[in-house]
Amino acid sequence: MKWIMKAKKERGAKLIVIDPKFSRTAAKADIYAQIRPGTDIAFLGGLIKYIIDNELYFKDYVVNYTDAPFIVVPEFKLPDDLDGVFSGFDPKTKKYDKSTWKFELDENGVPKKDPTLKHPRCVLRLLQRHFARYTPEKVSEITGIPKDKILEIYEIIASTGKPNRVMTECYAMGWTQHTTGVQNIRAMAIIQLLLGNIGMAGGGVNALRGESNVQGSTDHCILFHILPGYLPTPKATDVDLKTYIKNYTPITKEPKSLNWWKHRPKYIVSLLKAFYGNYAKPENEFCYQYLPKRDENKSYAWLNLFDAMYNGEIKGFFAWGQNPACSTANANKVREALAKLDWMVTVNLWDNETASFWKGPGMDPKKIKTEVFFLPCAASVEKEGSITNSGRLAQWRYKAVEPPGECKPDAEIMNELYKRIKALYEKEGGVFPEPILHLNWNYGDEKVDTTIIAKEINGYFTADKVVKGKKFSKGQQVPNFVYLQDDGSTACGNWLYSGSYPEEGNMMARRGKEDPTGLGLYPKWAWCWPLNRRILYNRASVDLYGKPWDPERPVIKWDASKKKWVGDVPDGPQPPLALGGVLPFIMKPLGVGVIFGKGRADGPFPTYYEPVESPLSKNPLYPKYKFNPLAKIFKAKPVDKLAIHDPRYPIVGTTYRVTEHWQTGVMTRHMDWLLELEPQIFVEMSKEFAQEKGIKSGDKVIVKSPRGELWAIAIVTERIKPLKVLGKTVHVVGLPWHFGWQWPKDGSGGDSANLLTPDVGDPNTTIPETKVFMVNIEKA
Amino acid sequence: MINLEILIIYKIFKLAFCSEFFKFIKRDYKLAKYYKNTFKNGGEKMKLTRRDFLKLSISSLVLSSFSLDLSSVKAYAKELRIKNAKEITTVCPYCSVGCSIIVYAKGGKVVATEGDPDSPINEGSLCPKGSSLYQLVNNPYRVLKPLYRAPYSDTWKEVSWDWALDRIAKLVKETRDKYFIHKDEKGRVVNRIEAIAHVGSAALDNEECYILQKLMRALGIVYIEHQARI
Lengths: 780, 230
Known about the structure:
The structure holds 2 protein chains of 2 kinds. Chain A has 20 helices and 30 strands. In chain A, the strands form 12 sheets. In chain A, strands 23-25-24-30-22-28 form a 6-stranded mixed β-sheet. In chain A, strands 9-10-11 form a 3-stranded parallel β-sheet, with no helix packed on it. In chain A, strands 12-13-18 form a 3-stranded antiparallel β-sheet. Chain A is globular. Chain B is an alpha+beta fold. Chain B folds into 3 domains: 4-75, no CATH class; 86-137, 2-Layer Sandwich (Phosphorylase Kinase, domain 1); 147-229, no CATH class. Chain B is 46% helix and 19% strand. In chain B, strands 1-2-3 form a 3-stranded antiparallel β-sheet. Chain B has a 3-stranded mixed β-sheet with strand order 6-7-8. Chain B is elongated. Classes of the chains: A alpha/beta, B alpha+beta. At the A-B interface, helix 9, helix 12, strand 9, strand 10 and strand 11 of A face strand 1, strand 2, helix 6, strand 4 and helix 7 of B.
């Protein structure tokens, strides 16, 4: 917020806040719009229409750096043609056959383009036709935002389509926790591409990520579908390493595309070397068969995991620094699922609702078989290591004190567990012990030296090797991922972090304050992946000759005399596009920013659907499909229940956070200072709604959904107002989700708002729709 | 907060009558003069280190002629508490902005924490959570020993690390050996186990995240998730 206020004061920046409630940020905004939860694509679709209809897009950028001029095959059909779905939709399986989602190719296999952007089947014109029905009137009727305010916001945002103006966009769970979550973000990415705001100083689409190291934990891929560095986890169909490499290494026929993922074989082989050391050899596919292969038709995502647990398929469970009994949508289902386990290991600083689920509300410990372990771990200042912030900046943290009592750093707990499991397999034998016995794991006997791990993540040479004319010897750190090999001569735990700990030392611990660009990039403060590049896709910030679109705030520029880039670390050393260089979006096979997103499960363009639980009986834009037909819906009986236009639940509910608490509150409810500031769960509601229900501020009320209920203290406020949606009044209430029954001890904090939320998920990510659900409220 | 202010006023009185305070004022007066001259003479932009910044804010106590400027006194009070303390930097464990925090430790205890003015990310600012880091470390509610809840029991029991880790290792092996899937129904080698699941965590350091997923994958687990998915 500090920097936003500075931009407002020093550069006259405008702050626009769009949120279902008037927040502390909204209090500082130039314009605030209260939006009905879950209607973002209507709002953003209307904005895309406004930008294209009024030709306010950044034409040079759009023509050269995006797929807007590419021509799509005539077989492709829009929801406009097919009553709400794209071509290829199978109503039985509720999946798309994507064979019509493709470009027309020329004789060289490269997409045909129309640089004039006039062809009716070019991406830009299809996009325009797709959003033609998203008029300001319609957007206003759906979102509840008055039409004049919508147009005022559209005008300001569209004004950044000029080379010397830029907009940055910040979002958080308010966009991701929807059954259209991925498409919410895509809609903004499309807007930023149209306005030429990607790769620019002060541009981008920025996730305000949640946890202190959620960027790092995602980069290291504690996720079912990816291995460290965003390498896909193998499926059963990827029968051997050769097939895996073939399936996941993109090829391109576009001569100006760098197509960076062509290096994937080097990254997977180096990862296998980091996992299996000397056991990983070319003749055994570098131990590729040691990696578990997932069922290609099955999802192992968070919601699926707890569904499987509820159905008794999971016997043992690790909850490491997590509190799913409060953090998961439909939390009652999770709490019941935990009772079906044989054993559970929890690692945390404090006891919590997950570890103690067996004595929670409605539970009878005498009937619960689950064997539960609570392992106390060290806090962040009681150990040493790095964490990565939202801006991909990995910063090193030092140890200040020893952990109290018998608490151990997490790395030591992992080390102990591994050593004991390995010893058991050595002693007793067992099923397929090789991946355990052959694991490359030497991080210290008792105390773990995390710098050894950081060096493995960076990567090292496992043999003497000459790369790019430089001689390296066995055991030497690789300078960065450009030097990684696919022949087994390098090991690297995560190619994206290669360069963070080279021979020169720990780059993440740097504290240099130089700012040569004047843009606040601070290239010697800690270290940023990839290659310490501070702004991704920065080649898009210059014209075809390497001249910055905005000469006053250059991220990089081409120095023609020295034949090199100056400024930030460029996306590759190649010269500018017109001087024999490469296209700016180097991770994409076609080298350009993607507007036509054919990789998505639910359509190449964002399309407006109502939330699964909504106050409307129909989707006002596509009456045939009320909610995302691909939304993931679980049907475990009797816990999975939905209120789909159910008169018993007429109020729209949403959840959010307060500054004083954190996530499920385990890390803040145990802090007396913070608990004093925000002691218990509340529900915010408008004056009009409170009057209708006879509720006063401070009253205890019961909030109910089909899945659960909880008490909360009513806050009657101006911060939420009734909305006019399609001529009718819609009431919205909001609750923070930081509370739980286990602490404070006397139960005075209340319980988790996720007892109310539905476990329905986005078709691409399976992130639950916890930001919109239907409730009812009564006085307690 | 009221308590804090009473404490500060109490400290002001205490300080005003101790000789150390006058020594301090003398030292600070010299410092203040030095900075004043630097400001006057410095044609180029002055660069302040974090230490200088702290000293400067203490000096403002003197410059403000003993008016009750609480912020300065707070800084002075802190200076005493952190005297001879080990000083390390950390990054806030809450959200992912990445604010830097200075942690002062003395006698194996964290005695103070404050926003790190040297960090270009937060320049010393912290939100209520980051400002409370001190209480996270010095926290009476932490669990200090491994706990165990036996099947059908209604209480936690304290156990030793050795016992807990051995028991967990045994359960992991038993479950893995019983439910391991070497080949699927189509005869393809899959080497996975679906009967053990793992979640967490974005609260861990990068190095821990890396070895944690390495361990879980070596066991053949495919239900590997964490809060990035929710």
